Amino acid sequence: MSAAVRTAVVTGASSGIGSATARRLAAEGYHVVVTARRKDRVESLAEEIRAAGHQATAHTLDVTDRAAVDTFAAGLDRCDVLVNNAGGALGADPVATGDPADWRQMYEVNVIGVLHLTQALLPALVASGDGTVVVLTSTAGHATYEGGAGYVAAKHGAHVLAETLRLEIVGQPVRVIEIAPGMVKTEGFAVNRFRGDESKAAAVYAGVAEPLTSDDVADTVAWAVTRPSHVNIDLLVVRPRAQASNQKVHREQ
Fold first, then answer.
1. Which terminal residue of the chain has fewer beta carbons within 10 Å of its beta carbon, N or C?
2. Catalytic pick among 30, 145, 151, 205
3. CB–CB of 158/135 below 8 Å?
4. What global pTM score does this model have?
């Protein structure tokens, strides 16, 4: 199959890693289908990609709405790559005082949203004869840190979903790739986590010379997706040089 006609669905494409990944996969020759809740953002992104001479289609989609996901999937002619990027964090409270509503919302988006899209599009991915499921998790899905239990639990769930899916569909023509970024300075992630508190969001990156960018992660996703069909990148952890672990970060004075 020609790369020019292959279709890649990217969720959470209204900003940050999602939009950067859509641009990068479009440049690789994919027809990108960009989805997110913010209609104006995904339509603008699709227009930008088309203006650059590539193929793109925008769809407004809430990954936690299963009926909407099923309708979306039924309307696709094909799907060769699914990038499960939609996600996010809420709060940084300890377990003792964390809001169960925040935990529930994080689980719904980061885990159930991935489940919805993967279940809905897996038949098309198999039918493509050479499908790829990408799950964007986080280093939070592999190690804990204080104040992050809700997000850590959700990303651990997404990690286990990807790992189990890979076991269950082995022998089918579909790869399952997990990309787990560390500290990434993206539009809105930290601000949303701290409910608009710009000072708390800025403190996350204070003194870190070069946190990862959305383009860094998009480059990693594109590299993994474009490996030869028989090559599966099971898990790729990517951090900035300044970050040795979730809790060990070099900060310049």
1. C
2. 151
3. yes
4. 0.94
Please state the rounded mean pLDDT for residues 131-144: 97
Name residues whose C-beta falls within 8 Å of residue 79's C-beta, 6 or more positions apart in sequence.
Answer: 7, 8, 9, 33, 73, 121, 124, 125, 128, 131
State the Cα–Cα distance between residues 170 and 69, nearest whole angstrom: 25
Give the pLDDT of residue 199. 78
Q: Report how far residue 24's alpha carbon sits from residue 90's, in angstroms, rounded to the nearest whole number.
A: 28
> Is 90 exceeded by the pLDDT of residue 1?
no
The answer to whether 176 and 135 are in contact (CB under 8 A) is: yes
| 2 burial via Cβ count (<10 Å: 0-12, 13-18, 19+) | exposed
30 catalytic residue (yes or no): no
- pLDDT tens for 43-90 read 999 999 999 999 999 999 999 999 999 999 999 999 999 999 999 999
pLDDT at 101: 96
CA neighbor of 90 nearest in space, from 112, 113, 106: 106
What is the rounded average pLDDT of the residues 160-176?
Answer: 98
- Describe the strand order of the beta sheet including 7-10 as a list of residue ranges: 56-60, 31-36, 7-10, 81-84, 131-136, 174-181, 235-238
As a whole number of angstroms, the distance between CA 74 and CA 32 comes to 16
Q: How far apart are CA 200 and CA 93, in angstroms?
A: 13
Q: Is residue 241 a contact partner of residue 183, using CB atoms and an 8 Å limit?
A: no
